[in-house]
Amino acid sequence: MTTPATAPPAAEALCVEALSKRFAGVRALHDVHIDVRAGEVLALMGENGAGKSTLLKILSGDYQPDSGRLVLEGEPVVFRTPAEAHRAGVRIIYQEPEIVPHVSVAENVYIGALPRRRGRLLDRGALHARVQADLERYGFAQVLRPDTLGGRLSAAQRQLVEILRALTGNVRVIAFDEPTSSLSEHEVDALFALIRRLRDDGVAIIYVSHRMKEIFRIADRVAVLRDGRLVGQRAVAETSEDELVRMMVGRDLSAMFRRRHTGAARDRSMLSVRSLTTDDVTDISFDVRAGEVLGLTGLVGAGRSELVRAVVGDLPIRSGRVLVDGEPVRLRSPRDAVRVGIGLAPEERKADALILERTVRDNVSLAVLSRLSRFRIVRRGRERDLVNRYVRQLDVRTPSVEQEVRRLSGGNQQKVVLARWLARRPKVLILDEPTRGIDVGAKAEIYSLIDELAAEGIAVLVISSELPEILGLADRIIVMQHGRITGELTHDDATEERILALAMADQLTSEGVIR
Amino acid sequence: MSQTADRIASSPAPDSPTRGLSLRRALDFVGVQNVSLLIALGILVTIIGTQDPVFFQTANIKTIGTAVAISGLLAVAQTVVIVLGALDISVGSQAGLASVVSAMAFTATSGNAALGIAAALALGLCCGLVNGVVIVFGRVNPVIATLATLAAFKGVAQLVSNGRAQGYTGADPVFIFLSRGSIAGIPTLIWVFVLAAAAVHVMLKYTDLGRNIYAIGGNDNAARLSGININRYILGVYAMTGLIAALAGILITARTGSGQPVSGSEGLELEAITAAALGGCALKGGKGAVSGTILAVLLLGVLTNGMTLLGINPFWQNVAKGTLLVVAVVIQQVRSGERRVGLPT
After folding, report:
1. Is residue A97 classed as helix, strand or coil in its secondary structure?
2. pTM of this prediction?
3. Please, what's the b/e burial string for B208-225 (b: 16 or more CB within 10 A of its CB; e: otherwise)?
């Protein structure tokens, strides 16, 4: 191995031996061998459906393997429940953590192990002091306070609570499941500092991510899964992005971004926002023109999602105007927005966009049911034709349109959301983090789809925290910070550095002043 | 691409092209979730029928039908409310109030049955709208709101009637037709129930209204962002429920020959919720169907009828109903594979 911390004698903290798992005849994992040493970061990669989540759920005790075994520090172990895995020192940090909304951060962290005094009285002072110490030790004191209520936390803060929770007690192995998908760049830095510290303390770390850059920053080795099998393991120093992508998808994705939509009717503004002020954003003005992709970026918490929700009438507007295709409109609810031709695909796919227990057909036709109906009766033949057309056009991989949406992978679920809006034929399409938690292959498909939509003349507004995505997709990029627009860049001028400079403008200057 | 192949391979392979397909069609028609109800009904009918052949006589089957018609109406309305993700506990009180009002309006108009019925229906609509307005604009949880109106509507019914049965409709031809008449040999009560259930079934399954109700119950954020006016649907569903509850109240008046503030309707709300839950409605919303509810109503009706025929202590009937509900829901939950931790959804 290349890193000194993982010199040969380092013990194998966790071995996964010949693990197999099937679900109703579908092979989720097949004869997988993986080991993680104490004091190393092993990245686990693979497209959605490759078996990463199944593997994590076996480690956490949520699933039992059909065959094969786990060996923890030389001892074979069986985790029948998550509690057993926890006791043995194995922690999994999931993408969408469960946070109790009505209690404080401190209680959320020490949930199940609250400090007590005299019988069952909660020792609130000791609890807060302990959490405050944890926050300072791990470098999160700036972003999280122990007394904030769980319900008020941002996605990034919820993730941090989940991490703090995992660090209580004796920890031997920690697996992170796409921890950065809701984090902004500087929060990622703090997380990586924490991971390095844990690694140096001798914890074995499994790091699941789709983001190549992160793998190369943080991991010592990479293991790649495809279709439930281990394709290979590489030392990070001896591999390349191209090789890993090839291992994952078996095809070359160098052309993730094709831009065919340039040169459309750029002078026709389909959505104009003028001096918009709400509880979260201040004096926002921008235009999205027909046939263009406008990127909207900024750190998490900059007010991007709140801005678009106000634009579609889902959050109250204090002052300012919205014009659609040149006409001033007053949008009191998303219903009004849909009527004038604005569609919003929200950030939280499962919570805000999909009806998970209904079929692909139900989900795709949701926004056009009244158009498909005569005398209020939905014409099923027409509906089926329409849904089939968009399922084909977007290449939604589903056995049939009668499949429940919850059974689809993340990428295909996102395509279902897009299909819903395409069926409505909107003038303006707003996509909030359209590729969050989606595998590389599906990402490329969604990028090319966004490009096609713009080519057809739709005005597309894409919100994203992933800078390469914004850089690749957008014709123009507006950057927000603390609820204000701090700058606009054209496709040709934009670089990651420039965007970050605008996104963190006052932080950089204030830090410059202090130091 | 291999993903596609995997997905296709994972979908159940049709075993034999002809028989498999027709079985599939039959299953689709009945609905997979209704199969266990049908099996239970079949077993129950077999047991009771072999014990006492009277069970299969036309008169007895009519008895079962008329016995379930009133609670069945409320169960069908409750199904829609539950699919929307809400609950209406006040349906029994609404039916009682409508019963009193139908008889009092009938008496006040010196025997105009049509006006009596119209007054009851108008009142039911208003009661339903009150529920909807309290929930939507008062932001009161549907269980709490209708728990409140359960008490309030019952109180109003007792106030206007002084707590006594009102009027005498037993001699009016319209009310007699409703309670004891028949069309094509089938009692009017059953016709009312079947037609109302069919109308609600079509609304829920085949119209955009019904599909939007499922969407709201399944994920109200998604429904709202897709342009569905959720408030209007809540008001509409509660208004419809009030209307159906009033219809049930009119049938109570017809059957008893007078307006009953409490005695004909008390406890019907729980029977309605029992049937809906037994029929496969999930209380969190988005799931359930009129077909399942009707099967459940029949199952409960057959159970009561059969136990009476077999001379079993009526107290056991409640124990049997309760057991049936728990067993049915346990089976549904085991099939859905929910983890056995914490409060179930």
Report:
1. coil
2. 0.75
3. bbbbbbbbbbbbbbbbbb
Structural contact between residues A42 and A10, judged by C-beta atoms closer than 8 angstroms = no
DSSP for residue B112: -
Q: What's the one-letter identity of residue A11?
A: A
Q: Across the interface, which of B11, B207, B229 has its CB nearest the CB of A399?
A: B11
What's the token pair of residue A52? 């990463």
Which pLDDT tens digit goes with each residue over A74-115?
Answer: 889 999 888 889 889 999 988 777 888 888 888 888 887 777
From chain B, pick out residues whose CB is under 8 angstroms from the CB of A250. Answer: 2
Contact A420 B226 (CB under 8 A): yes
Q: What pLDDT is stored for residue A107 in this prediction?
A: 86
Lowest mean pLDDT among A242-251, A381-390, B88-97: A242-251
Residue B215, min C-alpha distance to chain A (Å): 7
Residue of A nearest to B2 (CA): A227
Measured in whole angstroms, how far is the alpha carbon of residue A205 from the centre of its chain?
Answer: 20
User: Where in chain B are the domains?
Assistant: 63-304
B205 close to A (CB below 8 A): no
Burial A119-138 (b: 16+ CB within 10 A, else e): eeeeeeeebbebbbebbeeb
How many whole angstroms separate alpha carbon A289 and alpha carbon A454? 10
Q: Where are the alpha helices (DSSP H) in chain B?
A: 2-10, 19-30, 32-51, 58-83, 91-108, 113-137, 142-161, 173-180, 188-206, 208-218, 220-225, 230-256, 268-278, 290-309, 314-336
The H or E element containing residue A174 is: strand A173-177
CA distance linking residue B321 with residue B44, whole number of Å? 13
- Specify the amino acid at residue A112: G
CA distance B192 to chain A (A): 23
Instruction: Return the residue of A nearest to B4 by Cα.
Output: A397
| Distance set, CA A104 to CA A135, A158, A165, A194 (Å) | 14, 12, 13, 23
The DSSP-derived string for A26-54 is EEEEEEEEEEEETT-EEEEE--TTSSHHH
Least confident of A24-33, A490-499, B124-133: A24-33
Partner A contacted by B336 (CB < 8 A) = no
Tokens 């059957």, located at residue: B255
ipTM of the complex: 0.84
Residue A348 CB burial class (10 angstroms; 0-12, 13-18, ≥19): middle
Number of C-alpha atoms within 13 angstroms, CB side, residue A28? 19
Q: How many CB atoms lie within 10 A of CB B252?
A: 25
